[in-house]
Specification:
The protein is α/β, with parallel strands linked by helices. It has helices at 15-26, 60-66, and strands spanning 6-10, 32-37, 50-54. Helices cover 28% and strands 24% of the residues.
Length: 67
């Protein structure tokens, strides 16, 4: 099982990214999860161990803004 990790999930508001976020957020352990997405408004109620990070990683400009 995944434990004691820092995890970054991109595209966390839909599709595979959201499914992975939902799965990992349900685990009762001390993982810290950064959920990056263009639309973090869709991501609520995942608990204290999930940090929502608004970011568009689909372009170079988006990468630069996120740094």
């Amino acid at each position: 099982m995944i434990q004691h990790r820092n995890i970054v999930i991109t595209g966390a508001s839909s599709g595979i990214g959201k499914a992975i976020l939902e799965m990992l957020a349900k685990l009762e352990n001390d993982n810290r999860i950064v959920a990056a997405s263009r639309s973090i408004g869709k991501l609520q109620g995942f608990g204290e161990n999930v940090v929502l990070f608004p970011c568009d990683l689909s372009t170079q400009e988006g990468w630069t803004r996120c740094l």
